[in-house]
Amino acid sequence: MHSPAIGAGLALGLGYIFELNKNDKTSPPSAIGGVAGHLNEFRMDQLLPAAGAGGRFRLTRESHVNFRVDFAVGRNGHTVTIGVGEAF
Q1: Is 39 helix (H, G, I), strand (E, B) or coil?
Q2: Of 4, 7, 31, 56, which is the most buried if we count CB atoms within 10 A?
Q3: Alpha carbon 68 to chain centroid, angstroms
Q4: At 78, is the pLDDT very low, low, confident or very high (cuts 50, 70, 90)?
Q5: Phi/psi zone of residue 77: left (φ > 0), alpha (ψ -120 to 50 degrees), beta?
Q6: Cβ atoms of 19 and 3 closer than 8 Å
Q7: How many Å apart are CA 70 and CA 51, to the nearest integer?
Q8: Nearest C-alpha neighbor of 52 from the set 84, 18, 14
Q9: What residues form DSSP beta bridges with 69?
Q10: Best CA proximity match to 56, nearest among 47, 65, 43
Q11: Is residue 73 part of a domain?
């Protein structure tokens, strides 16, 4: 019987939320990361860069519930995420 493989992951992200006005914000994050079977197998030429932009729009004055729209692009594609609340 084989034991399950345990991999290693590494990610570095950077983002800043700019306040446009009292109710609206934007965030241009960027990230780079990689996946390997073991830490010593990470290679700089196989890192996966990503970047994106998003907007936050406060739905009510009484609470900090936001409607969010995010766009991200990476080496192999792109995505659009729309939701209420925060992604993390």
Answers
A1: helix
A2: 56
A3: 13
A4: very high
A5: left
A6: no
A7: 11
A8: 14
A9: 55, 82
A10: 65
A11: yes
The count of other CB atoms within 10 Å of the CB of residue 71 is: 14
Q: Residue 20: inside a domain, yes or no?
A: yes
Q: Tell me whether residue 4 is in a domain.
A: no
> 62: which 2 tokens?
């009484």
Provide the residue range defining the domain that includes 61.
9-84
Instruction: Output the pTM of the full model.
Output: 0.60
> CA nearest 72: which of 8, 13, 9?
13
What are the pLDDT digits (tens) for 2-12?
444 555 676 66
Considering the domain boundaries, does residue 2 fall inside one?
no
Residue with tokens 């209420």: 84
Integer Cα distance of 74 and 51 in angstroms: 7
What pLDDT digit, counting tens, does each position of 4-53 carry?
455 567 666 767 777 777 777 777 777 777 777 777 777 888 888 888 88
Please state the domain count of the chain.
Answer: 1
